[in-house]
């Protein structure tokens, strides 16, 4: 019968998880090529989302046999090529669409 520290036992897995995340972040900062797990961490998405995007060819990737690889520069380019539009840009696009729709109906 050993001496137990309940609070420490509760927090230990949480602390180990945090340490693992910190180490992964550091190693990913230095890498130029990622496997699927590292790409998920880099992008902040689940493996399901990553595989879904690769199967639909929505994200740049490379196959070697059945293994997926990702290049950091391609992922960064892909991330920044899909910016969210501002409210002003959306309003302008909506106005252009509605004015074009009105012109088509008048013809």
Automatic annotation (TrEMBL):
UniProt source species: Pontibacter anaerobius
Q: Which domain of life is it from?
A: Bacteria
Q: Which InterPro entries match?
A: HTH_17 (IPR041657)
Protein's name according to its UniProt entry: Helix-turn-helix domain-containing protein
**Domain Helix-turn-helix, first and last residues per copy:** 36-79
